[in-house]
Amino acid sequence: MNVLSVFIPQAMQSDYSKLLRSALLEGIDIHEGSLPMKEYDVLVEGKPSTAMITNHPRLQSVIIPYAGIPEETRTLLLRFPAIHIYNLHHNARAVAEYTLALLLAAVKHIIPLHNTLTRGDWSLRYLPSTSGMLYRRQVLILGYGTIGQNIARLLEPSGVHISAIRKSISSVENDGPVHIHPLQDLPTLLPKTDFLIVTLPLTPETRGLISTNEFALLSNRSIVVNVGRGEVIDQHALYAALRSKRIAGAAIDVWYNYPESVEDRLHTFPADEPFHELDNIIMSPHKAGGLAVDDVERERVMALADLLNAIKQNTPPPSINLQWGY
After folding, report:
1. Which of its termini does the chain have fewer beta carbons within 10 Å around, N or C?
2. pLDDT confidence of residue 292
């Protein structure tokens, strides 16, 4: 039996290491720690050094133990086209649930209701309701990878009509009730969209994909949710669309400015534009994928075990397209 040798430079805690090993098929050899194996077939590392790649001619696969690919990793691995690159999507369900929470909070205007009642103010109860519904509305998921698919599964029972955009297709496909379109259909889909949900990674092609022209195509009842990467949406165009009520609202979890130090965490606004002054946005500090530490690590370990078992059985999922960045 050929042994699949796996090197994990960042040693796991003992309980997680035991859990991983107990879930693996026979014939998978795991080595953890800073001292590398002499040879290995699989490297589990988000930001590998050049030596980790070039000094190991047996290397077949690199597993990035989270979603996305750091730009420096993408640049390095472009030099080694024979190596397969994989992500772990262990928190996809958590992101999907958070996305649904953001969408519902925006549609139902939960935040203003909460804020006024904490002051003992019941006045919003007696005003005409501005709350909307998901039922029969049109949802467009921009990016139909693992997270987008999980979002669609959670939304289906709500009675919404779901479309999605996937770059890798050239004509419309169906995934159950979800109609999947190529990227060139985006301008024709936006005018019919009530809820635009962005799950895309940031690549040269996706940067600024949603900007002034795209907001002009949305209706004034549309709500935008972004759990992908901030700069997929042009921040100035988003601010202008919200301030002018060109769109009804937004719920944003991913941003443009992040704290650079612990001291900065208490006084860093997440964008150059003053989104915090608007009344039609929900601002979340990049928490969609967050779980309790034990939960997220257990999910990560089991996702890693599933992927290593698939590689061992020669049935891995499609690898990352480094030219696309996902």
Report:
1. N
2. 64
Whether 326 maps to a domain, the answer reads no
Q: Verify that 179 and 261 share a domain, yes or no.
A: yes
**Do residue 85 and residue 155 come from a single domain?**
no
As a whole number of angstroms, the distance between CA 121 and CA 124 comes to 8
Structure tokens at 197: 């949900």
- 240 lies in the same domain as 251: yes
Q: Note down the domain range covering 190.
A: 92-283
What is the DSSP code (8-state) at residue 276? G
Q: Is residue 197 within 8 Å of residue 225, measured between CB atoms? A: yes
Please state the domain count of the chain: 2
* pTM of the predicted structure, to 2 decimals: 0.88
The dihedral region occupied by 27, where left means phi > 0, alpha psi between -120 and 50, and beta the remainder, is: left
Per residue in 179-227, pLDDT (tens digit) is: 999 999 999 999 999 999 999 988 889 999 999 999 999 999 999 999 9
